[in-house]
Specification:
The protein is an alpha+beta fold. The protein has helices at about 25-30, 50-55, and strands at about 10-15, 40-45, 60-65.
Length: about 70
């Protein structure tokens, strides 16, 4: 019998502080998240990889869980 799939959890990520003055790795992580401008918001599917990226730049972004 097939298992029921769980609903996909999504996160809303907003860039609230500039990456200027931070390391190149932090800048690259912000870009990899799809953020280019201040106050820009993107949505991504929650995953361990994404959580690791957010932990790296948690001082630059605000994360909210999207209710579906």
């Amino acid at each position: 019998m097939p298992k029921k799939s769980q609903p996909v959890k999504k996160l809303r990520i907003t860039l609230v502080k500039s990456a200027i003055g931070y390391s190149e790795r932090h800048k690259a992580t912000v870009r990899a998240l799809g953020l280019r401008h201040l106050n820009q918001t993107v949505e991504h599917v929650d995953s361990p990889t994404l959580r690791g990226m957010l932990a790296k730049v948690n001082h630059l972004v605000v994360v909210e869980q999207v209710e579906q």
